[in-house]
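pasting for the record
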Amino acid sequence: MGSGWICGRKMRWGLPVGGTTLLLLLLSAAAGQNSPGAACSQNTNKTCQECLKNVSCLWCNTDNTCLDYPVTKILPPASLCKLSSARWGVCWVNFEALIIAMSVIGGLILLAVAVCCCYCCCGKKKSRKPDKSEEKAMREQEERRIRQEERRAEMKSRHDEIRKKYGLFKEENPYARFENN
C-alpha cells in the first residue's frame, strides 16, 4: 500500500513536512518584519513585497496602498479593499484564492479524518466476524467434540456390560435391594 496507509499503520511524512514548512515561512515572515512602531501606510506606493514584510499589513492592488490589517475582523471589509485585490502574507495570492484554498484544504483534512475513522471502525467490525478458515476450524473442533462424546458413551456402555458380567455393576439406588424384601 505504500506511504498512503491510513489510521496510523505507517507514518505519513506529508503532514510533518508541511507543518515544518509553514512554521519556517511564518518564522521568516516574523524575522523580516519591520519595527513594531513602523506604520503600514509608510509603504504605500512602494512594492507589495516591501509592504508585506510586516505581517500586520495588507496590500491593496487596486490603488497600490499598504494598509493596517483590520485585526478586529477576520476578513477585511470591502470598503477597505476588495478581496480579489487584497494581498496578505504573499503577493502572488489574493484573499479570495487564499480563502478558497484554505477551505478546500480544511475540507480535505476533515474528509481524510472521516474516511480514516470509517475505515478503522469498519475494519474492526469485519475482524469480529469469523472468516472461512476460522469457521472451518470451529466446525472441525465441534466434530471432534461430538466424536469424543460418542466414544465416551460407547466406552461407558462397554464398561457397564463388563461390570454386569462380573457383578460389579452399581445400581442406581443402593437401598433398592432392601425395599424389595
